[in-house]
Design brief:
α2 runs parallel beside α4. It is elongated, with a radius of gyration of 14 Å. By secondary structure, the protein is an all-alpha fold. It has four helices and no strands.
Length: 85
Amino acid sequence: MTLHDIVGLLAGFLTTTAFIPQVRHVWRTKSAKDISLGMYLIFVCGVALWLVYGIWIDAWPVIAANAVTLLLSGAVLVMKLRFDR
């Protein structure tokens, strides 16, 4: 494992785990009224593209981080759509 792999994994870990408190909060309160739908739509699309990019260049730190981030941010987006009905 190279130094840039370690830096990539650490960056991915930190930015990915940053979504866990948001997912927990929305799930517990069953409310996403203060979350921007537009921001999460754009963000989820951007993360999906980062995942595709990581797959194309075979960069496993990019793939791993963005796969998990896509799941977490996608969960917030789904809860936003579900709870705001």
